[in-house]
Amino acid sequence: MTSPQAPLVFITGASSGIGQALATRYAQAGWRLALVARRVAEVEAWAAAQGLVRAQWAVYRADVADTDSIVAAGQACIAAQGLPDVVIASAGISVGMDTAERADIDLLRDLLATNNVGLAATFHPFLAAMRARGRGTLVGVASVAAIRGLPGHGAYSASKAAVVAYCESLRVECRGSGVRVVTLLPGYVATPLTARNPYSMPFLMPAADFAERAMRAIAAGDSYRVIPWQMGWVAKLLRVLPNRVYDRLLSRRGRKPRRASAG
User: Fewest CB atoms within 10 Å of the CB: 10, 130, 238, 243?
Assistant: First the structure.
């Protein structure tokens, strides 16, 4: 049974994918869990399947795209479970975009509200208290899609590049306070978000493997970590390619389905 003094992790997007995989790994390590999801019933079913005792976890219904909603969830966590040791903003949207389509401009707005504003709002309730305590870790989940713009991924690549830049700014702001900021850049992880991708996904890894490596990176306080490392080298290579070469290589790549065509 998890001790009431066990460390606490706060995770958004906990009903599926990377968020749920991280919750599983932290539970296995004996941490207490504060889980955020819109689909609370799915989290409750997952916790029951894991055999978690009720004292080990709590779930907070919130939509990270709604600032008041996610801020309230953070405040409720502090009131009910205490100040987390680690906060992981893993909730996100990954949908294709076509700028020629009017509906996709609204998609861009919605995606940024979740992937960027929602990430900052996730951190907001905890930052001042962590600084006052003198320790804590804030984790932003970006993507290797942040490193270069991918065709059909204009909204997603832009949002994840913004996650990297935002977390870097916050990391510098927190220097000397005891609060660490970790930026994770997953490559291709087998989740519902990647299941519909109509293109090859090199170094595709199970979500559980990602969670194991991510937990180690968070514990080490890594400021920036690409997982798996092989995708880090691929991304570095793409970054140094001249634009004309990059454009030619990527122009024939399959496009991620748009929201209207994704069902």
Answer: 243
Q: For residue 149, which of 134, 137, 159 has the smallest C-alpha distance?
A: 159
Q: Is 156 a residue of the active site?
A: yes
Q: Cite the DSSP H helix spans in 14-97.
A: 17-28, 40-50, 67-81
What does the block give as tokens for 146? 């942040």
The tens digit of pLDDT for each residue in 183-212 reads 999 988 887 766 666 666 777 889 999 999
Angle at 218 between CA 208 and CA 13, to 5 degrees: 55
Instruction: Please name which of 2, 27, 96, 1 lies closest in space to residue 11, comparing C-alpha atoms.
Output: 27
Spell out the CATH class of 8-261: alpha beta
**Which is catalytic among the residues 156, 166, 188, 224?**
156
Measure the CA dihedral 167/173/177/180, to 10°: 10
pTM of this structure: 0.90
d(CA 142, CA 22) in angstroms, rounded, equals 15
What is residue 263's predicted lDDT score, i.e. its pLDDT?
24
Which residues, 6+ apart, have CB-to-CB distance to 66 below 8 Å?
Answer: none
Return the DSSP state at 254. P
